[in-house]
Structures are given as C-alpha cells and as structure tokens.
Amino acid sequence: MDRIKEITIASYKTEDISVHVVAKIDEEENLVLEGYDVGPYVKEHWGDSDYEYWLRVAREDKDSVLLWLIKERFTTSSQFKQWLDDKGIANKFDSWV
User: What are the residues whose beta carbons fall under 8 Å from the beta carbon of 39, sequence distance 6 or more?
Assistant: First the structure.
C-alpha cells in the first residue's frame, strides 16, 4: 500500500459553487483540512469570487483526533479490521486463545 499524506474529502461543482476540500499532513506533520470554494454563491456571501480556508490540528494532537474518530466510527475490532482491509492498510490481528 502507498502511504498517503493527502486525501480529497469533497470535490463537487454546481452552477452556483465549486468546492474542493482535502485533509492532509503538512510538512510540520500537522493535520490540515483545507478548502477552496469559488463561484457566484461565494461572491454573494463573501464578497469575493473565491474563498480559501484552513483548519489545523497540531501534530501533538493528531493522535487524539485519530482515537476519537475510531471511537465514533467503530464498535468492534472486526469492523475496524474490515475497514483497514478494504482500504489496503496493513494490519495484524492477534488474540490470546
């Protein structure tokens, strides 16, 4: 599996707006959600034809984000393992039997 540092969260276009949002790990290892909106809707609400934005989580807090996302998404290890497998993310399950 190729390790990724950026993934597209949303990318769509209507007659009023074009939106592109990515989540990425920046050069300082911070988690960044950044977006770019353009179109008549943006002009009407922001007074300019485009709108760029960033939401940063410091690298020290990335693990907290990861753990909260896992808690809110999965209730069993098998669900989590299946999701990892579906994404092609290497994992190893062990148990004491």
Answer: 14, 15, 16, 17, 18, 49
pLDDT digits (tens, 9 = 90+) for 14-36: 999 999 999 999 999 999 999 99
- Residue matched to tokens 């960033």: 54
CA separation (Å) from 58 to 5, 31, 63?
15, 7, 10
**74 neighbors 91 (Cβ within 8 angstroms):** no
Q: Residue 59 above 80 pLDDT?
A: yes
In this prediction, residues 39-52 reach a mean pLDDT of: 92
34 beta partners? 22, 54
